[in-house]
Specification:
Layout (H helix, E strand, L loop, with lengths): L9 H9 L18 E3 L2 E3 L7 H17 L5 E3 L28 H12 L53 H4 L3 H14 L18 E3 L11 E3 L4 E2 L1 H16 L5 E2 L6 E2 L6 H15 L7
Parallel strand pairs: 3-4, 4-5, 5-7, 6-8
Antiparallel strand pairs: 1-2
Length: about 290
């Protein structure tokens, strides 16, 4: 939810008054105590979908959107939830400017991967604007003795020590955040007793809620795509296993970004990219969901 205009934004005003936003542990004196991230619209705060009044505000927003543009489905992106800062931004929202001279998101991504592939040790610092912390004891992260991958667990995600309305930590609920948003959205679309306004027209129909973040059981409420991938033959091959795995996880409608989201260093030739995309579109006819 945008926090760029905390006075005129009616949804922020309602959420602030109802106290149903995720709370910051690292910066409790800033931004009314709410966890602040930076996303496409700028400053952003997060509804706590585990709290019913937050779901009520979400219902109002979806109904207002329907009044402007009647829609058949909705796309829930960045709902891990993620942001441009590691953990949270605090009082200062940084500029989207990398300290390295890079020209595109792909270059930033490749630079990140190549940098973290080196053994820099525990004190190594990556100097890009979206990877600014170099250890797990930084206040905006949860102090963990491990990290199950090359990145800290709050790399471009919410602080694990952020707290929900009932005092529960994001550490315990992180993997369920997207799932809770899917459940709330499905309830707005399909429960006529709960939502007596638009989009009531969806009642009784199969909903289309495309979510990037899901959990076991999300298939009862939403669909899923496999996230950002690369435009090469390996990623096309891996998409088959990814789709079938999610079918086993109970999410029947799932698929990848057909033809790849990022350009790959493995396939730079335009002619080969066209051939790859043509073959990938052929494969996509067998995906439950082709995007």
């Amino acid at each position: 939810m945008s926090a760029e205009d905390p006075i005129e934004n009616e949804y922020y005003v309602k959420a602030n008054q109802a106290k149903v936003l995720l709370k910051s542990t690292a910066y409790p004196e800033d931004n009314n105590g709410w966890l602040m991230q930076k996303l496409w619209p700028g400053k952003a705060v997060f509804l706590d979908f585990f709290n019913q009044p937050a779901v009520d505000i979400w219902r109002t927003g979806l109904n207002d959107l329907w009044d402007k543009i009647p829609y058949d489905g909705i796309w829930l992106d960045l709902n891990e939830a993620s942001g441009d800062c590691n953990g949270e931004c605090g009082a200062t929202i940084p500029n989207n400017t990398a300290s390295e001279s890079v020209s595109s998101w792909y270059d930033k991504f490749e630079s990140l991967v190549s940098t973290f592939s080196d053994d820099g040790g525990s004190d190594f610092t990556n100097h890009t604007w979206y990877k600014s912390y170099n250890n797990q004891s930084t206040p905006s992260t949860y102090n963990l003795p491990f990290s199950p991958g090359k990145d800290i667990l709050t790399a471009s995600l919410l602080s694990l020590n952020a707290t929900h309305v009932d005092g529960e930590t994001e550490y315990n609920l992180h993997s369920l955040f997207g799932h809770a948003e899917c459940m709330a959205t499905h309830k707005v679309f399909s429960d006529g007793a709960y939502n007596t306004k638009s989009p009531r027209a969806m009642e009784g129909l199969r909903t289309f809620i495309l979510s990037r973040s899901t959990f076991a059981g999300s298939g009862a409420y939403a669909q899923h795509w496999l996230g950002d991938n690369h435009r090469d033959w390996d990623n096309m091959k891996w998409s088959i296993a990814g789709t079938m795995n999610f079918n086993m996880f109970g999410i029947p409608m799932v698929g990848p970004d057909t033809c790849g989201f990022y350009e790959s260093e493995k396939v730079k030739n335009v002619t080969e990219q066209k051939e790859l995309c043509a073959r990938w579109i052929q494969l996509a006819t067998f995906y439950p969901f082709a995007r």
